[in-house]
Every structure is written in structure tokens, then in C-alpha cells.
Amino acid sequence: MIDFAPASVPLDRRLQTAAVLKWVFCFLALAPCCIVLFIYLLFTRFWLVCVLYATWWFVDWDTPSRGGRKSPFLCRLPLWNYMRDYFPIQLVKTAELDPRHNYILGFHPHGVLVTGAFANFCTQATGFGQLFPGLESYLLMLPLWFRAPFFRDYIMCAGLIPSDKDSASYLLRREGGGNAVVIVVGGALEALDAHPGAHTLLLANKKGFIKLAMEHGASLVPVYSFGENEVFDQVPNPHGTWLRWIQEHLQSIMGISLPLFHARGVFQYSFGLVPYRKPIATVVGKPIRVKKNQKPSAEELDAVHQLYMDELAQLFEEHKGKYGISEDTHLIFQ
Fold this sequence. Notes:
Layout: H1 11-42, H2 47-59, H3 72-75, H4 78-86, E1 89-93, E2 103-108, H5 115-121, H6 128-131, E3 136-141, H7 151-157, E4 160-162, H8 165-172, E5 179-184, H9 187-190, E6 200-201, H10 208-216, E7 219-226, E8 233-234, H11 242-254, E9 261-262, E10 280-284, H12 298-319, E11 332-333
Parallel strand pairs: 1-10, 2-5, 2-7, 3-4, 3-5, 6-11
Antiparallel strand pairs: 7-10, 8-9
């Protein structure tokens, strides 16, 4: 039976739903729409627009990997406040981050649509600028999306940059500090484990971000987003099933994962792609100072990696009780 939304929903809640619906559309469908629009315009009287844009695209090709083009205006739009209040989402500070240094923030878990990472580090809705004055955050995203015309310019304005070593290194080697590079360490593959109640992280063999921090002397900051896996349901896909096999092979080919997720709709609560109204608390841990070492040995790399996992596990244990997680639940590293 379909559970319809009441007709007397307050205007604020309707605006919150509209803001989240817009975000979901941008995340899932805006890039393909931009590609189709670009091709369509080529065969109309507006073909010159595509030619001019293609020229601009060629000139601007390296901008995403050179820090992008973050727009304070876009990051402070009231739209994001409605998105924040929908769940709601909060950013929790546990330690000071000295703006004279550069940082790598390891974000966990990926979730289905990295909701907490976007709201906290691509907008000012949760007060990142007030909590960490002097720091500018940049969220890494699959390079594939920066090949979509028009869409690339939109995501750059939100502080998104390609998730490759060159893009991150460009920011981390800036003199004077003040840069916080946010890496969703588990990557797209971790989205396949984003089931409600799950706390499984793909981290045990993820050492590239550790090496990056050591090469630049950037401090590592573990970040855990409580509630990230609760805002969507996902079709069961345990390891060994045909569905999981297909998803993992498609991810290895395309670079993006395809979790079969669902939640609620706009005017009813029974099915759809609009996330549930479940709270998300993104807790930023204390910085781990990393000594600059451009050629770390395997042993040195393993030592820092283990330290990072220990700090992340401790962060989870210290805060899980505040967000309804039982005492006998612990992080699982894979």
C-alpha cells in the first residue's frame, strides 16, 4: 500500500524536499543531460554556441586539475540550507586545524551519493568556513565527470576537482597552507556496501592517499559520517551473488558503481529516489601530523596507514553512542 504525504505539509518542508530533489537530479542526471544538450545544439542554428564552448573547453582543459574554479556565491546559496535541514546534516569539529598547514581529509563511508561530503565540504550550509577559518575545502570526484560539457563548469564552482594524483598534489604543494583536500577513500566500490546499519570500509589496502600525504608532508584527518548509509535502502547484493558480480565488473570497466538504491518519493513515502529524512553527523577527527618523505619505504607507509586506521576506529568508538550505534558495533576494514 502506498503511503502518501499529507496535503498540509509546511512550506519549509516542501522547499527542503525540492532542494534535495534538485541535488539528486544533478548527481544522477545532469551530466548526461549536458552531453545530450551539447550534441543537440550542434545540429541546430545554435551550433556556434558549441563551437565557442569547445574552444573555451580546450583553453580551460587543465583548470580542474589546477584547483578548479570554486565560487563562494554558489557555495552559499540558500538552497543548500534547505538541503541541510531536510535530513538534517551537521558538521562536528573535534580539534583545531591550523590554516598554515595543508590537509588530506579521509571521508568515510562513501554511502550511496556521498551526501555528507557534498553538503559539508562543497557548501557552507553546515558552517565549514566558520568552524575551520582559513581553510578551503576541495572534494575529489571521478575525472570522468570533468569530461562532460557544461557540467564540468558547474561542479568546479562547487569546489570539486578530479580524483587523480596531479589534482590533489597541485593543492597540497601550495605554500602557506590553507587547503583541505577531501578524499572519499573507499571510492565508488564502497557504495555497493552502503546498506543501512553497515559500517564496512574499504580501507585495509588503500594506501595511495597515505603516500600522497607523506610526499607532501600534509596532515591526515580521519572523518566519519554517521548516518551516511541510512538515507537510502539498497537491493541486497552480498559477495558471491550474480548482482554483486555484475556491479563489480561494471565498476572495474567504467569507474563508477551502480548500486540499486531506493528510498521515498516526492508525494509519497513508499518508493522513489528521494533520500529518507535521516540525520547525518559528519565528525572531523584530530589531525595526524605526517613528516614529509618523498620516497617512503613500504614499512614507513604501512606504519602511517595503521596509525590512520587506529585513529579512525577510535573516532568511531568515541562518538558512535551519540548517534544511536550499539556498543558491540565496530568498524570493519576490508
